[in-house]
Write a structure and sequence with these properties.
four-stranded antiparallel sheet; elongated; 142 residues; five-stranded antiparallel sheet; mainly beta; 47% strand; Jelly Rolls
């Protein structure tokens, strides 16, 4: 019986380790669409990394609904969650489905904010659905 309980605990532990290493996606909500016909919308997501991760991967996927896409993705970092500094930015998106990835080989910051917004200061005909995927890789420990 003890061996069976140990085996069950081992399987559960291995499964949770595998799931923790897969990419997650923020749920799609109403505000995750950039529409710049009347105003300049921004989609913003915050990822918290507090467990000593060795690498972070973030993928921004945009699907054009209509118009001419002029958005760009930015990655900001913060230690306190209030004061962010820009650490990376993508090239300007083009029409169709857009995908851009940010990779960090260390995770010195606690908060990572992904922001997608229009490049220019004027309105356009853009409508873009934004999805943000991320994975936090733990230290291997070997």
């Amino acid at each position: 019986m003890k061996k069976l309980i140990f085996l069950f605990a081992l399987v559960i532990g291995l499964m949770s380790q595998t799931i923790a290493q897969r990419a997650s996606v923020f749920p799609l909500i109403a505000g995750d669409t950039i529409s710049t016909s009347a105003s300049l919308d921004t989609v913003s997501k915050i990822i918290t990394a507090t467990a000593g991760y060795s690498a972070i991967g973030i993928q921004v996927v945009g699907t054009r609904v209509s118009g001419t896409v002029t958005a760009k993705a930015y990655l900001y970092s913060s230690l306190d969650g209030s004061n962010y500094i820009i650490t990376d930015s993508s090239a300007a998106f083009t029409t169709g489905t857009i995908s851009y990835a940010f990779t960090k080989t260390t995770s010195p910051y606690v908060y990572y904010k992904v922001m997608v917004r229009n490049v220019g200061a004027s309105t356009s005909t853009e409508a873009l659905i934004v999805r943000v995927y991320y994975v936090l890789r733990k230290h291997d420990g070997r």
